[in-house]
Amino acid sequence: MNVRRALAVVFACLTVFAGGCATLQSDPLQVTVAGIDPLQGEGMELRLMVKLRVQNPNDAPIDYRGVALTMDVQGKTLASGVSDSSGTVPGFGEAVIAVPVSISAFRMARQALALKDNTGKIAYEMKGKLSSSGFATKRFSANGEFDLSPSPAATTTE
After folding, report:
1. In a domain, 6, yes or no
2. CA separation for the pair 144, 140 (Å, rounded)
3. E strand or H helix at 84, and its extent?
4. Dihedrals φ, ψ of 84, to 5°?
5. What whole-number distance in Å separates Cα of residue 118 and Cα of residue 75?
6. What is the pLDDT of residues 25-64, one digit of tens each?
7. pTM over 0.85
8. For the chain, give me the number of helices (H) and strands (E)?
9. What is the pLDDT of residue 132?
10. How many angstroms separate the CA atoms of 83 and 79, rounded?
């Protein structure tokens, strides 16, 4: 096979592959915390059931079998958890998925010491994934800040 023909075959394969990838692209999931409930912990840990509201802005449903979640505060991991739950997030729909997370006493103490004198903003980030068989793992993340500075009304004196 000559070089020109080999390059044409490679280019054709790349074009087909790239076109196939374009159809696999989808908008990212929108995930927010819908609720947090206490669970029974063991020893020096705090256990919480974090309920995630997962919104799927795509027309194809997402079947999942397994969820992983990590919650960071000020760039340090505070809580993490996994669940082997399964289900479907419908296309252009939403589902609430519960994930038990653990927070060690050491992580709580580290965060408390770091936040003790902080009267400004606290950065948080939540990362996770919905897993299924094959290549359909969907990763998600959300981040933001809590403002701990006193409100102007609270600092007004008469």
Report:
1. no
2. 14
3. strand 76-89
4. -95, 20
5. 14
6. 789 999 999 999 999 989 999 999 999 999 999 999 999 9
7. no
8. 3, 7
9. 78
10. 14
